[in-house]
Every structure is written in structure tokens, then in C-alpha cells.
Design a protein that fits this description.
By secondary structure, the chain is an alpha/beta fold. It folds into three domains: 3-244, Aminohydrolase, N-terminal nucleophile (Ntn) domain (Glutamine Phosphoribosylpyrophosphate, subunit 1, domain 1), CATH 3.60.20.10; 248-452, Rossmann fold (3-Layer(aba) Sandwich); 454-612, Rossmann fold (3-Layer(aba) Sandwich), CATH 3.40.50.10490. The chain is globular. The protein binds 5-amino-5-deoxy-1-O-phosphono-D-mannitol. 5-amino-5-deoxy-1-O-phosphono-D-mannitol (M6R) binds at residues 304-307, 351-353, 356, 359, 402-404, 488, 492, 608-609.
């Protein structure tokens, strides 16, 4: 939530900040702003997208070789010009951009009011700006980084901040706790961003700040310490992002581009990990912890949103094939519900971004209780990737669309490989079935390409149903989580109320919703549950519901019964997940477009939920 950028060097800062903010808009997009230090401190901010702020600033003095910028997802205070960042201190000496939540801001504000500070916004960030200012003016010997350290020592909550001080024209102070920040190292210049993508164009050398790190960036040097003023050793990482990845290419939206990338990203995810003769699965990142996984008393898989849906699929696979007890938890529940965990447990945390606040809190809890913690993560160098004992990257490439698509199929691919490898090592799977599954997994990309050819047909179905108020998604077995995921896609980008249900649960309540206005999407490929799901479809049809069925190619029976069918190639039931979700992503996408929604930046959402 919220994107931060910064630049200090010899170039003009404004274009670098604007370009960076446009990349980070997926993190929040209700208002944006920049601050530039030239002769004076200039701050330009506006409600709305980055482009609106850019237009506004272009008519003003936007020169300067040092600056910070922000794109916001509102926490404290509605989206408005006043609440946009940067937030200045009362006397305009400091300006601050902030990602996170200062939980004790109300108490700090009351204290500052007693010292005659006044406030223009509803934000917790303005409180921080004034708190820094307060400490700065306590003693002449206090410089900006000391003031930031003193202020942060009083703060409870999460922050990634960048601070400019009008009196120190060769310095940006940045600090992090809970909210990611990356510093890019150039030649006499430094770049700051909430993730590495906006920096990749300028340098391949970055430093990921750790919690409580504070970095002081000056044109001629970079100092890293912690909030308590102790030195911190500098770990420089290399990034290797293809800038082409950050482009929509021929597509209108990133979401569509990312849906279409799936055959390739699934392939990237298993590349080098599936042996050509299907005999072995190699997961180098898990090598050291694999004995722990084999001996695990149980496995707990944790995530949020789409990552939680992938976790459910992991549960089904691990239990079926590796015969290990698995529990799946929402990170937001797990972190607070005092779970019983010990060193015999293996906890797998799934996160596309690797920065989701609840998932990181769950990681810290599981680690503190002695469990082996494993990450499945897409963003290289993210906090999750750095803080887990071991992990597997999903290699889906940068995902910009707020609605997760290719990250989901990559997560399921990784979980499939873990489950099959574990099952094979433990001898809990028949070798023939193991080899069939590995072979079929390697064939999924080709089958995915075939499904994408149905895009026009799916668009026509979307046109028929885009005026619906509600929608129901049903599936059984492995396809129940797919129904949940399909419903989530629809609701988050089209704002149609959609519920995913296990089809067997339909008679226990949701069937009351069925009438001739309700589209019911049924994921019904030919698997062990086929007969049962056909009965469910009969029940919906008997009540005049409109059935859109995802079926195995050549299924003539359901073609007769359902109002609309979308065919997917035949596959092993456990792998049908990876295929059947693609039409659901396309359906949600087209419905949202028919409704005139911005599919890449749906209202009220942000890509990385870095606050709880
Ligand atoms: O980055 P993460 O995988 O941890 O994010 C988890 C959820 O916030 C995310 O999947 C969210 O539900 C997406 N908007 C779903 O499309």
C-alpha cells in the first residue's frame, strides 16, 4: 500500500520520480505528490492518479536534483489534496512521504498540539513530520537524521519513509519498519523505491532495507545504521529485471497481458525443476530443509486472498499424495489467534509480493515458535524471501495488475512440485501416477495456450452477463478453491457481488439465491466428482438459474444442459486447476470492461497490502 520513490544525484529528479510513481501506482492510486529541493522546498500534490499531479506540477517550478514522491492508498483521512503526501511539518522545514500506519498517532498529535503544533490534514504522516520537526528544534546540534531517529523511537506502527529537510540540501533520510524500501546505488546518485522495479532501469545494484534500518543518502555517500544509531552492515544485492516486463505491450491492460503470459510463466516456474525424463523434481531452494519437510508432524500453509486460495489447493495435493496433515490459515487470523505450533511443524507462507503485512506477521510468529518457515514468493528479494528459512520463487515475473492471475498459477505450480516431490520421496505415491502427473504438468503451458484461443467466445459470454448484480461460483474438490478464486476475480474488478462455494454446500443455503437473473459459474471438468456436479447443475437449471460451465473438451452432455460452456483440454484432475482458472480470469476481465471498470486499478484496492 502506497508507493514511495526518491532520487538524489546530478540529474533532474522530477522525471525520475514521475516515472517511478507510475510504476508504483499499482500499490495505491487515490492521490499522488512530489517534493523537490532546489533553492527552496517545493511540494506538489493532488487527489487522483499520478498523471493529474504531473500535469499540475509541470506548470510550476519542478527543477531540482533531489526529490521524493508518493502514490497513496488512503488509511488515515479520505483521498484529497490535503491528505496526499508529501506531508510537511507545520513550518515547512520537513517534508515526509510514508507507507504504513503510525498506530499511536492520536496520542503523539495531542502531545504536539500541547507544543503549539497545528495540522492541516487528517493523516498520521503529518504527525510524523511535525514530530521530526519537534526533535530537530530541541537542540542546535540535532540534524535531520538524528531528528528522524528520535521521532521514530516514539512511533508505534509500520513505516517506510523518505524525509527531506529544507536546511540540508544534499540529503534524503529513509527508514523502514514493516513497509518495504529499496535503495538503488548509482554513480554519485541514489534511487529509492518501494520495490526494485522502478530502479531497475537505472542500476542493477540495490540495498534492501531491513526493519529499523535508517539510511542517509547524500550525493557523495550512503550511510546505513539502525534507529538506535548502531551501524548496520551493508548488503548489496543484484537485480536482474527485464524492463520489457514492465510494459503492457500490445495489451490494453496489464491484467490481460498477465493472463496471456501464463503458459510462459508456468513454464518458467517449472523450468530446470522438472527433469526431462519426469523422474525427478529439483527444488534447490528447499534442499536444506527438505528432511524437515519429510519429518513434519503437519504442514500449515498461510496466505491472504488469492495466495490463500492457492494454499487450499496445496492442502488437497499434499494430503492426497504426500499423506501429511495440512492446515490452511488466513494470515490475518493466524497471527492473532494464538495457534499451537512447535518445531515439528513446517509453515509455508505464500505471497506474490512477499510484503503482505499479515503474512509477514504470521511468518514472525511461526518462526518465534520454532517452526521451519518456507516461502513461496514471486518478488525476488522481498521481505518474505529474505526472512524465511528456505523457499521457492515462482518466477512469474512482475505482476502489476491488482487482480492476481499469473502469480496464482505459478503458486499452484510450485505447490504441485512440492507435493509431488514429497510424495515421491516418502513413497506415498504410485510411481506411475507420479510420472503421469509430472509429465502432465509439463504439458500444461501448451493446454493453457489452447484455452486462450477461446478469448472471443468468453468475451461474448461476458457481454451477456455483465449486468448481473450477483454471481455464484461452484466447484468440487480441487476446483472448489478455483470457484473461490473466480468469484474473487469477478468481485474485485467488476464490483459484482460474487460468492464461491463448494458445490456440495449449495443445498445448504446458496441455492436460495438462484433465479433467472443469477449467473452460476460451475467448474465442471470430467473428474471423480463429475456426476455429482452434473446433478448440481440440474438443480440450478430446475430453478431457472443461468449456468456457465467450464467443461472438458468434447463434453456434449453439459453443452446441452448449461446455458454457456467454455471448454478446457483434458488433464489430470489435480492439474485441471491450472487450466480452469484461466477462463474465469478472462470472464471477470471482460465483464469488468463491459462495465467500464479500470481492471488494473480497481477501486479501494492496492496490490501489496503492507498495512494490516
Ligand atoms: O502479495 P500477496 O500474495 O501476499 O497478496 C495477497 C492478497 O492481497 C492478493 O492475493 C489479493 O487478494 C489480490 N488482489 C487478489 O487478486
Amino acid at each position: 500500500m502506497c508507493g514511495i520513490v526518491g532520487y538524489i544525484g546530478k540529474k533532474e529528479a522530477f522525471p525520475i520520480l514521475i516515472k517511478g510513481l507510475k510504476w508504483l501506482e499499482y500499490r495505491g492510486y487515490d492521490s499522488a505528490g512530489v517534493a523537490l529541493l532546489n533553492g527552496s522546498l517545493e511540494v506538489y500534490k493532488k487527489k487522483g492518479k499520478v498523471i493529474e499531479m504531473e500535469q499540475f506540477a509541470l506548470s510550476k517550478n519542478h527543477s531540482g536534483t533531489i526529490g521524493i514522491g508518493h502514490t497513496r492508498w488512503a488509511t488515515h483521512g479520505e483521498p484529497s489534496d490535503e491528505n496526499a503526501h508529501p506531508q510537511n511539518s507545520m513550518n515547512n522545514v520537513f517534508t515526509v512521504v510514508h507507507n504504513g500506519i503510525i498506530e499511536n498517532y492520536a496520542k503523539l498529535k495531542t502531545d504536539l498540539v500541547k507544543h503549539s503544533y497545528t495540522f492541516k490534514s487528517d493523516t498520521d504522516t503529518e504527525v510524523l513530520a511535525n514530530l521530526i520537526d519537534f526533535f530537530y528544534h530541541q537542540d542546535e546540534g540535532i540534524n535531520s537524521e538524528m531528528a528522524v531517529q528520535l521521532a521514530l523511537s516514539k512511533v508505534v506502527g509500520a513505516y517506510g519513509i523518505a524525509v527531506l529537510c529544507k536546511n540540508e540540501k544534499n540529503k534524503i533520510v529513509v527508514a523502514r519498519k514493516g513497509s518495504p524500501l529499496v535503495v538503488g546505488l548509482g554513480d554519485g546518485e541514489y534511487f529509492i523505491a518501494s520495490d526494485a522495479a522502478p530502479i531497475a532501469e537505472y542500476t542493477g545494484q540495490v540495498v534492501y532495507l531491513n526493519d529499523e534500518d535508517i539510511a542517509i543518502l547524500q550525493r557523495d555517500g550512503f550511510t546505513l545504521k539502525n534507529v538506535s544509531n548502531n551501524p548496520v552492515s551493508l548488503k548489496i544485492s543484484s537485480i536482474d529485471l527485464e524492463i520489457g516486463e514492465l510494459d503492457k505491450g500490445d495489451f490494453d491492460y496489464f491484467m490481460m497481458k498477465e493472463i496471456y503470459e501464463q503458459p510462459k510463466t508456468i513454464e518458467e516456474t517449472f523450468r530446470g525443476r522438472l527433469r526431462a525424463d519426469h523422474s525427478e523434481i529439483v527444488l534447490g531452494g528447499l534442499l536444506n530443509v527438505f528432511p524437515k519437510i519429510e519429518e513434519a508432524r503437519r504442514i500449515i500453509i498461510i496466505g491472504c486472498g488469492t495466495s490463500w486460495h492457492a494454499a487450499l489447493i496445496g492442502e488437497y495435493m499434499l494430503e492426497e499424495y504426500a499423506q501429511v496433515p495440512v492446515e490452511v490459515e488466513y494470515a490475518s487470523e493466524f497471527r492473532y489467534r494464538k495457534p499451537v505450533i512447535n518445531s515439528k511443524d513446517v509453515v509455508i507462507l505464500i505471497s506474490q509480493s512477499g510484503e503482505t503485512a499479515d503474512t509477514l506477521a504470521a511468518l514472525h510468529l511461526a518462526k518465534a515458535k520454532g517452526a521451519t518457515v518456507i516461502g513461496i514468493c514471486n518478488v525476488v528479494g522481498s521481505t518474505l524471501a529474505r526472512e524465511t528459512d528456505a523457499g521457492v520463487y515462482t518466477h512469474a515475473g512482475v505482476e502489476i495488475g491488482v487482480a492476481s492471475t499469473k502469480a496464482f498459477t505459478a503458486q499452484v505450480t510450485v505447490l504441485t512440485m512440492i507435493a509431488l516431490k514429497l510424495a515421491n520421496t516418502k513413497g506415498t505415491i504410485d510411481i506411475k501416477e507420479y510420472q503421469t502427473l509430472v509429465k502432465e504438468l509439463s504439458e500444461i503451458p501448451e493446454k493453457g495456450r489452447i484455452i486462450l484461443q477461446s478469448n472471443d467466445k468468453i468475451k461474448a459470454i461476458a457481454e451477456k452477463y455483465h449486468k448481473a448484480i450477483n454471481a455464484l461460483y461452484l466447484g468440487r474438490g480441487y476446483l472448489f478453491p478455483v470457484a473461490l478464486e473466480g468469484a474473487l476475480k469477478l468481485k474485485e474488478i467488476s464490483y459484482i457481488h460474487a460468492e464461491g462455494y463448494a458445490a456440495g454446500e449449495m443445498k445448504h443455503g446458496p441455492i436460495a439465491l438462484v433465479d433467472d437473473n443469477l449467473p452460476v459459474v460451475v467448474v465442471a471438468p470430467q473428474d471423480d466428482y463429475y456426476e455429482k456436479i452434473v446433478s448440481n447443475i440440474q438443480e440450478i437449471k430446475a430453478r431457472k438459474g443461468n449456468v456457465i460451465a467450464i467443461v472438458t473438451e468434447g463434453d456434449t452432455g453439459l453443452k446441452e444442459l448449461a446455458n454457456d460452456v467454455i471448454e478446457i483440454p483434458k488433464s489430470h484432475p489435480a492439474l485441471a486447476v491450472l487450466l480452469s482458472v484461466i477462463p474465469l480470469q478472462l470472464l471477470a476481465y471482460h465483464i469488468a470492461l463491459f462495465k467500464g471498470c479500470n481492471v488494473d486499478q480497481p477501486r479501494n484496492l492496492a496490490k501489496s497490502v503492507t498495512v494490516e
